[in-house]
Amino acid sequence: MEESSDISPESIPKELHSEYEERPFRNCTRCGETLLDYSEGYHIAKIFKLAETIFEYALCFSCHSGLINEFSVDSKRALEEYYSTNMKPGMRLSGCGLCGLSKSEFVDLEYSVGALFHGSEMIEGFVICAPCMDSTNSLISIKTQGIWDDFLSENFPGVPADALPAPGKLGVI
After folding, report:
1. pLDDT tens for residues 85-114?
2. Is the sign of the CA dihedral 115, 57, 87, 36 positive or negative?
3. pTM (2 decimals)?
4. Cα–Cα distance list, 55 to 19, 58, 99, 126, 171 (Å)
5. Please, which of 8, 93, 98, 121 could form a disulfide with 132 given CB 3.0 to 4.6 Å?
6. C-alpha distances in angstroms, 134 versus 20, 87, 88, 170?
7. Is 51 exposed, middle or buried, given 0-12, 13-18 or 19+ CB atoms closer than 10 A?
8. How many CB atoms lie within 10 A of CB 129?
9. How many whole angstroms separate alpha carbon 115 and alpha carbon 25?
10. Residue 45's closest CA among 153, 124, 143?
11. Each residue of 113-169: pLDDT tens digit?
12. Gap between the Cα atoms of 7 and 33, Å rounded
């Protein structure tokens, strides 16, 4: 697993840096490869509670799309429909991309932040507040929850699956 220092900390919002590594993510959580090696880009997801990071990962496009492809057809369809119907364009990291609530109104509660990157350039960023995370979680099938639980146990060993977020909380679709 080769490390690269080509990701400039100034170009990626601090909120999307790895708390664990205290710098921008450099490697895919699933395959370990250097994120900059993927011309298709990568996805970062974090969950905050009381303004503290409680969960984070970065996935290269190959691993992210591979994970999504494992989800049930019903979950993918329901989540894609929900996001396409409810996502508010242009919110980026300023507020909930689903309900439009300003981040200042829920920053002391639980919320998720995600972004798609190409190199150190953020292509799209989004925030989802706790009530909207709960709405998306209700769309997840049992099959998809099982796939997500497997992803968690493989990549976050020793942490009970019920202590980690459901896929709807992270806006993984």
Report:
1. 999 888 899 999 999 999 999 988 889 999
2. positive
3. 0.83
4. 9, 11, 22, 16, 14
5. 98
6. 26, 15, 17, 11
7. exposed
8. 24
9. 12
10. 124
11. 999 999 889 999 999 999 998 888 889 999 998 998 888 888 887 665 555 555 654
12. 14
**Unique residue bearing structure tokens 């989802």:** 128
Distance of alpha carbon 39 from its chain centroid, rounded?
19
For 1, residues 6+ apart whose C-beta sits below 8 A from its C-beta are: 27, 32, 33, 34
Q: Is 1 exposed, middle or buried (0-12, 13-18, 19+ CB in 10 A)?
A: exposed
Question: 170 to each of 3, 46, 58, 127, how far by Cα in Å?
Answer: 26, 7, 12, 9
The size of the chain, in residues, is 173
Residue the block writes with tokens 């099938």: 141
**Nearest Cα residue to 20 out of 169, 159, 173, 172:** 159
